[in-house]
Design goal:
CATH class of one domain: Alpha Beta
CATH architecture of one domain: 3-Layer(aba) Sandwich
CATH topology of one domain: Rossmann fold
Radius of gyration: 19 Å
Structural class: alpha/beta
Bound molecules: NADP nicotinamide-adenine-dinucleotide phosphate
Strand content: 15-25%
Oligomer: single chain
Length: about 280
């Protein structure tokens, strides 16, 4: 039995679907019972990372765990609860969703929180696999960019090899069901690195609407994120993340999706086309 945490999350929900399609029995951990899955081979269990008893119940008979968490300052602590519960319950292998360049001194909060959680897992004595993706396709709100006609970019010339959350999930499913993945760190990217002006150009081509990409300062970007309703702390973390991209642009294109999922990674253009077709 495989336990999938964050089963309502962008990647976790796709991991549940990927395991179901493989005919692999899995248990989806959700916080709200209304979010139960109705898929073959999938059972749903209610639990919370802060509730050790719920984790113990969820891990009964579980040999492998998919671990992720919402990006939060307490992410390492929350993931630590799952790691401790996995050790307590005799889990054999944890596959963790992390982030590109995760380490415990990274100036990007998102990468650092994952780096600290990675270290906890590495030091737990459990067998582990780390999945380190770059930015998700799903973080590009193409319809909103097309509607606004403007993409504000504090990222300078730095490119990002966007990856689709479903491709990460297929790699996770391969690592959770196959052998030879213990102690491996997989850097995961899509097929090409794109700058923000190139992202804007894709939105123009697919939506057929004019979009300009305007370079903005960190302060203007921060104000824009907060004005758009983002939590102030999260907005500051976003700015630190853009700064990390500027300081160390990600030029690497990895082949792991092709190797582990057995097919080419989806392109950002294909994702934006899906968004247009789906009206989102
Ligand atoms: N977005 C990107 O571009 C990107 C790029 C690279 C790496 N990452 C990493 O990906 C990870 C996030 O994965 P994701 O995007 O798949 O997740 P997500 O869509 O942000 O969803 C967060 C999940 O965490 C669950 N959760 C939050 N608090 C919990 C708790 N106390 N107990 C149990 N579950 C809890 C949420 O459950 P509810 O539905 O109940 O709230 C939800 O399922 C982060 O580590 C992030 O750094 C993201």
């Amino acid at each position: 039995m495989i336990l999938v945490t964050t089963a309502t999350g962008q990647v976790g929900s796709a991991v549940v679907r990927a395991l179901s399609q493989r005919g692999q029995a899995c248990r989806a951990l959700v916080r709200n019972a209304d979010q139960a899955f109705d898929l073959p081979h999938v059972e749903t269990v209610q639990g919370d990372f802060r509730d050790g008893a719920s984790l113990d119940a969820a891990m009964a008979g579980v040999s492998r765990v998919y671990l992720a968490c919402r990006p939060l300052p307490i992410q390492p602590e929350l993931e630590g609860h799952v790691i401790t519960a996995a050790s307590r319950n005799g889990v054999g292998h944890v596959v963790k969703l992390s982030a590109y360049d995760a380490h415990d001194a990274n100036p990007s909060d998102f990468r650092r929180w994952n780096g600290i959680a990675e270290r906890r897992l590495m030091e737990s004595g459990l067998a582990w696999t780390m999945l380190r993706p770059t930015a998700f396709h799903q973080s590009v709100d193409a319809a909103a960019i097309a509607a606004r006609g403007e993409l504000l970019s504090p990222q300078g010339d730095a490119a990002s090899p966007f990856i689709d959350a479903r491709d990460i999930a297929d790699v996770a499913a391969a690592a959770l069901t196959g052998e030879g993945h213990k102690g491996r760190i997989y850097d995961l990217t899509g097929p090409e690195a794109l700058t923000q002006p190139q992202v804007a150009a894709l939105v123009v081509e697919v939506f057929g609407r004019p979009v300009t990409c305007r370079a903005v300062s960190d302060d203007e970007a921060l104000d824009g994120l907060i004005a758009g309703g983002m939590d102030v702390g999260f907005a500051r973390s976003m700015i630190a993340h853009y700064q990390a991209y500027r300081a160390r642009p990600v030029s690497l294109i990895s082949g792991w999706v092709s190797i582990l999922a057995g097919r080419k990674p989806r392109s950002l253009r294909a994702y934006i086309e899906e968004c247009r077709t789906a009206g989102r």
